Amino acid sequence: MIIAAIKPYKLDEVREALTAIGVRGMMVTEIKGFGTQSGHTEIYRGAEYAVNFVPKMRLEIIVSDSLADTVVETISTTARTGKIGDGKIFVLDVAKALRVRTGETDDEAL
Asked: For a 10 Å CB count at each end of the chain, is N or C smaller?
């Protein structure tokens, strides 16, 4: 399982790049959070506001072990802007997968 938090405007570009390398599905959630930068301030109509949580997109992608490194590299290069807040990527082991419709398990369910 690859979990990535990326900038919202990079979502379509990352999705297209992942589709091109053979990723057949993912789950996407709108999230808010903060990292090293701990949010930032913005000026709106002359008043300064603290933005403590920055909007991000959370991608959850389950792939076979053989494709995991390629997926991580693809997300990393496609989502990178070189500026603070580009995001994070985490890789976790999945104990079991099951396709509900067919009953297929593990790699066949992916």
From this structure: N
**Total Cβ atoms within 10 A of residue 2:** 22
CB atoms near residue 28 (< 10 Å): 14
> Which run of H or of E encompasses 18?
helix 11-20
SS (H, E, C) the chain: CEEEEECHHHHHHHHHHHHHCCCCCCEEEEEEECCCCCCEEEEECCEEEEECCEEEEEEEECCCHHHHHHHHHHHHHHHCCCCCCCEEEEECCCCCCECCCCCCEHHHHC
24: three-class secondary structure by DSSP: coil
Tens-place pLDDT, residues 17-59: 999 999 999 999 999 987 776 666 666 677 776 777 889 999 9
